[in-house]
Amino acid sequence: MKTQANSTFEPMPRRGYIYLVLIFLLAAGLRVYNLDDNGLWMDEIHSAIGASPDKSFAEVIEYCKTDQPPLFFLILNAWYKLFGYNDVVGRLLGSVTGLLGIISMFFLGREFKGWRVGLVAALLTAINYFHVDHSRQVRFYPLVFFFSSLSYLFFFRAIKNKKPVDFLLYAFCTSALLNTHYFGMVVFASQLIIFIVVIFAFRLFNWRLISLAFGSGLLAGLSLLHWLPVILSDLSIESFHLEQVPWYFPVQYYYVYFRDPVTVALCAGLSAWVTREMIRNFNDQSNRLQLFVMTGWVVLAFLIPLIYSWFRMPMLEYKYSFIAVPAVILFVSMAFDPYGLGGINGRSAVLNYMVLIVLMICFFINSFFFERLYHDRSPRQKWREVVLAVAEAREEKVMVLANYAWYLRYYFKIYQIDYPIMEPRFAGTDRLKQFDVLWLISSTTFPDEGASDEQLKVINDEYHIIQTILVDGFLLTEYKRNQILSTTAID
Questions:
Q1: What is the model's pLDDT at position 489?
Q2: pTM for this structure?
């Protein structure tokens, strides 16, 4: 089969815009429905505390030195200041950036192979379990997805069209990506390698093209210059919390992206079909450029951090691979190209719709009945439920001891609970004796030093257990001072 040269530029009919609106509405519903079903988990609380609305931009940037580059946190900080500080507001920002990713995938698919592929790319992103899941969290991953797709969109356009505006837009989107997540540097390095390969493979020794590319790359690189001291400091770190990925990690990650066996099998088969067809049409210059960019995008997104992991320390993690997910989805979407790449649309429109319907049914069954994405999701850390259990008492002179007090303070602030909450190592025995009621919160899931032997002696000698509560991974014990119990008994 031959690829029709002008398929990318075929104008989209009115029904195409109707489909795009329907896809967007579907995506919005999947990303905002029942957002408050669970409280924030550990990483989300990191985002919420780091971008707290009572922090100035300078304070947010200072916090980011222990996390990621500051763009997402600055946006989240402004978002909280505008709309309020709670779980749903924070997660709504993830939903909004996730929806922007739907639009970017439409334009990415349209640029690579026409409006039909663009619509399929938007639909597959709308029902992609990995994307939906992270679009319902207070984290930067949907923004990483959005800027990665836009960066490669304008990267491809710049090479193909050689227009200054595409290079300028590439520089802007890549700068935003670099300032959102450290793996933006992997994208940046990958694009440099792909560009060099394309220059030699296509004999594009055009000084105007090379000059524009150098200028846009320089602008993007300089955007991260302010963060260079932090990067250099981080490079001196000797260990990281990640472990080396197993040799079969591509299969493992592919399953993480699509989540159920039927979807995994279908998407893997379609991706393989597309790759085969692109290789068969390798002599077509348009196909060859697409193959270089898409394959380089996926392979280098994993290979660069994998090499770093081998020679320095583990750095590859499935969430960080969000930079490659747009390309993974694009490979599947290209199977629906009516002009030959993949070919199923060209063979049967009915088959086309059947495959998409099966993928949608699989998503809904898996999300609502197996993974329980929207109701009673497990596992989830019950920080909110722990704080609400403590807050029900509403007693005077209460102190809370918890090894993970830093996380619990977020919900103390949200629910305006003014009990002092401290890590046991910062609370001396004299401090304990100032309170009539003590709550000792111990994690049964994470490492927890708990109270010291000296503190436990004071608690056991001067306090009496009122109740113990088990909240999914946390043991809460409430103590009251003995003399208070005695006085109550006499009365």
A1: 40
A2: 0.94
